[in-house]
Each structure stands twice: as structure tokens, then as C-alpha cells.
Amino acid sequence: MQKQNIRTMVQLSFLVAIELIMAFTPLGSLPIGPLVATLAHIPVVIAAVVMGTGAGAFMGFVFGLLSFLVWTFMPPTPITAFCFTPAYAPGNFWSVVICFVPRILLGVIAGLLSKALLKVDKTKGFIAYTVSSVAATIAHTLMVLGGIYVFFGEAYAEAIGVGHELLMGLIGTTIATNGILEAVLAGVITCAIAKAVSAYGMKAKRAN
Fold first, then answer.
1. Measuring CA to CA, how many Å separate 172 from each of 101, 105, 138, 148, 166?
2. Residue 155's domain is classified under what CATH number?
3. Which of 16, 62, 97, 118 could form a disulfide with 128, with the two C-beta atoms 3.0–4.6 Å apart?
4. Which domain holds residue 186?
């Protein structure tokens, strides 16, 4: 039990370090052609499928906290920073909700899906890890963009210079491009790492 706790702490510390790097350096984004995929959600998904829902929720909170700090003190696009922090008008309580809740639920959804799918997965985790990662990432994107549309739709449309009536279409396009790309990357990377960690864990158990 003590070894398991130490292993979990080491793994979480490693993932937090990666999240910090992704939050405060350009390594958190991956340009692919005309698109730019955000990678900061991947440590959350990895924690969830490898260590469970609790670890996923914790990493989701870390993801949300770092996002909040970035958007408050060094926003990538200051004109839309109000969506994630009340430090910029017309930001309010809902800015904090959008910044934290989808991130935490990202880890919860990935963890719950992975746990359920592993019970019936006959591919040694390939389907469970991939499907849970992709589904959780898409859900996260929908929650973030949906929250922006519901709570800041008109202000956000004005900030980016489009009519409010066009905002839903723009959000749909973002989901169909960046959102799908980020989901695919999460599925591929998470599955590879989760299977490697799982194989290592099996070897460690046999050694003990």
C-alpha cells in the first residue's frame, strides 16, 4: 500500500510538472497545418485513465487553476480573457465556473468511462483508453464553448467582431476542427502512455 501511494504521488507530481510546462511555455500548443491544438488537457486525461477519477479530478483542478492564472495575469488574447477570469470586464462568477468546472469534469468523465469500459474491453485497454480520452476531450470542449455561449455570448461575439447570430456556427466550426483534432491527439497519446504504464504495473506486481 505504501509503495502504491508513493508511486501515485510520483506520477501526479510528474503530471503536474508537465501541466506547468504546458501552461507557461509554447509547448502547450501544437501547430498542425492551419490549426493549433491545445495539449494541456492530456495530462488530466492520462491521470484519470491510469490512476482513477480522483486523480483525474485533481489534475483537472490543477489545469483549471493554471488556466485561471494565465488568463488573469498573462492572457493570450486579452479581449476574450473575461470568459475565464473576472479580472477583466464583463467577467464574473461564471468566468470562474467556465475555467474550473469543465476541467475538473474532464478528469471525472475520463476516469469513469475508462473504468466502465475496461470491464468489457477485450483489447487490453486499447478501446477503453482511446474512447474515454476522446469522449472526455470532446465533452470538455463542448462544456467550455457552451459555457461561453450561454453566459457571455453577446460579449464574446462583440469582442471577436462577429454578429451574435453567427456565434453558434463559429463555435460549431471550432468543435469540428480544433476540438476533434485535440480529441484525436488525446486518444492517441493517452492510449500509448496508459498501456505502457499498465504493462509496467503488471510487471511490478509479478516481481513482488
1. 21, 21, 12, 13, 10
2. 1.10.1760.20
3. 118
4. 2-207
Q: What residues have CB less than 8 Å from 38, skipping those under 6 apart?
A: 28, 29, 178, 182
138-187 confidence digits (pLDDT tens): 999 999 999 999 999 999 999 999 999 999 999 999 999 999 999 999 99
Instruction: Tell me 166's DSSP state.
Output: H
Residue 56: all three cell numbers together: 483525474
pLDDT at 35: 58
**Nine-digit cell string for 164:** 451574435
pTM of this structure: 0.92
- Find all residues with CB under 8 Å of 22, minimum gap 6, and list them: 28, 39, 40, 43
Check if the beta carbon of residue 54 is closer than 8 Å to that of residue 22.
no
Rounded (5°) CA angle 8-48-183: 140
| Model pLDDT for residues 16-42, shown as the tens digit of each residue | 999 999 999 888 887 665 556 789 999
Cβ atoms 77, 113 nearer than 8 A: no
Region of residue 24 (phi > 0: left; psi between -120 and 50: alpha; otherwise: beta): alpha
DSSP class of residue 81 equals G
* Residue 37, H or E segment: strand 35-38
Q: How many domains does the chain have?
A: 1
pLDDT for the residue numbered 204: 45
